[in-house]
Design brief:
Layout (H helix, E strand, L loop, with lengths): L2 H8 L11 H27 L6 H24 L4 H18 L10
Length: 110
């Protein structure tokens, strides 16, 4: 499956309706929330598993990453972006930074 396939198929599961920017806000807030849940699972690996990512931890983190992906796909749909394009543009940017020796540092325009 590629990103666009996932984006298209997951659209069937979007049940939130509403006026104006309601769906956009819902997706952005959901993405932030699920990202926090990923961080929480990783934190528990440190606290409860002595930093070891065992099969159970991997499964729990993977489930949260799936939720992140869903919200990302839905948010992209709301602003008419395709995930394949987003992924390719991001990879192009990062590889360019690597080639130019600017992968470290800060700022969007490096």
């Amino acid at each position: 499956m590629n990103f666009n396939d996932y984006q298209n198929k997951s659209a069937k599961t979007m049940i939130v309706e509403g006026p104006g920017l309601t769906r956009l806000y819902y997706c952005a807030l959901g993405l932030a929330n699920e990202s926090g849940e990923v961080a929480g699972k990783v934190k528990k690996v440190i606290r409860d598993r002595d930093g070891k990512v065992d099969d159970e931890a991997k499964s729990l983190i993977g489930a949260e990453l799936g939720d992140v992906l869903w919200y990302l796909a839905r948010l992209a749909d709301e602003i008419d972006l395709k995930l394949d394009d987003v992924a390719q543009e991001n990879l192009d940017k990062l590889l360019s930074r690597l080639d130019r020796g600017t992968i470290k540092g800060d700022g969007d325009k490096r």
